[in-house]
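Give me structure tokens for this 578-residue protein.
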Amino acid sequence: MAERSTAAVDVADNSGNEPLTAQAAQATSDGVDTQNGRAADGPMPDKDGERTNPAPAAAPELHSGHKLARRYRLEECVTRVDGFSSWRAMDEKLRRAVGVHLMPADHARARSVLAAARSSALLGDPRFVQVLDAVEENDLVYVVHEWLPDATELTALLAVGPLEAHEAYQLVSQVSQAMAAAHREGLAHLRLTPSAILRTSTGQYRIRGLAVNAALRGITSETPQRADTEAIGALLYAALTQRWPYESDAYGLTGLPKGVGLIAPDQVRAGVHRGLGELAMRALANDGATASRQEPACTTPDELAKAVAAMPRIRPPEPAFTAPPEYQHTTYQQGIYGRPTPPGVNTTQNRPVAPPPPPLQSRTGRALKWGVAALLIAALGLGSWQLADTLLDHSGQKGNSGTNNNPQTGTEDNPKQPEPGKQLEIKDVSEFSPHGAPTKPKDVEKTTDGKSDTAWITPQYLGFSKFGNLDERKDGSGIVVDLGKLQNVSALNIDLYVAGQVVEVRAAPQSASHPDSLSGFSVPISSKPERTDKNLQITPQDPVFTRYVLVHITDLPSDNDGGFRGGINEIKVLGSSS
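Here you go.
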């Protein structure tokens, strides 16, 4: 593999997912890079204080509302520096947010930016923010990439405080493995800053700017693998200490004291995990710094990933224990009973006590007592006889039922459970899509074909687990079951495509005819929408008399491929026709 690389970096420090504040936006429009505190047309500080001085070119004069390729509508400028600008935009064709980098076609770095973007797009690794388009059109060069509104920059995480050990371990593990895979394909980053690392809501770390930010900034390196490895070490060092491991302040972090050099993380902050601190020093072992315990330096992302894998796994912290609410102890729980009463303490209640009723001494009283006693004896005898008769009846039925009894305990091994009913015939199934066209109408029959290896599966949705937050999927999706006529539904057995989906089951009222909206299924069968296992069994408290049943999915789990996806393998409805 060639060691020299012109691979680039994403403009991670300014094309963040969080919108700029009014003050930051004003600073950007005045030509100031708000993240790094420098003039927009000036040189950018490198991690060790060095600066690059690309020849600035005038950024294209564009505005919010401008549309590229009749598809990408610019909405907010988040960066304008070094002759290019970065925007948050809307892909009107797919109705999703995207990011766009723009520069004039005659910009000195336009050709290298296009080449870097196209190389990055070919990688297709979901651990990186994906390049979606790279175009030269109408004297403009623009690169379109994913926009992750639910992700948080590492810059913002470190502004709160250092990461705990397990989170820092996940950071260095995921980033080093991703960069090792990129270098195997000949791609480098060269600008792995805290703002180039995004943490998603599911705890995954994603890297933006592979082969694009460096090209935008005109950054190159003779030793790209070593540069990226040292950058990962700096990220880990910052995550453990909340300090930047060089003398200069950068990315909102304070640098190390001047004149002391690179000191170990546990000398900067108490309580740093020793193994992770040593790992950061091994990745940063350069320019006079040495790793502790004479461990060899990690000079490539692959070496660093192997060193992380060789460490003992760091477990996540135990969830914080929440004490139960206090309650009033009874006198028995407080231990009053059985203890000697201290002198002077009155334990009796200061309430008047009614005197007991006078005994019945007359002849009428004695007769009444004997009458009550006779009634009690008769009642006890009658109750005993009925109880014996019931037990004999039950024993006889059990003996004839064929149920296996345990001879040692005298109990049934398999007590008979009430039957939910027979499996009802399903006349028709359809996809629930009240606001748009169905996505997989040809696959809906797979949910009732009796085969567990076939399924109706949703498309992959990016960015949002609620079906991409698309308007046509705002009420979720699912399968509508038509039983052909009104029947008593007493249970449903549902085999889902994957666990973790949020599912509810509803029925249409008796008077409904082919309901096509969520309000048309107004009778709940399940208690409420809840995140379920792969196999879902629902038994309503009372049978529901209906013809149409909706298995409704409202939220999708991550598919571990950068998106969200769900579906249904098989639906069985149990009940009776009357």
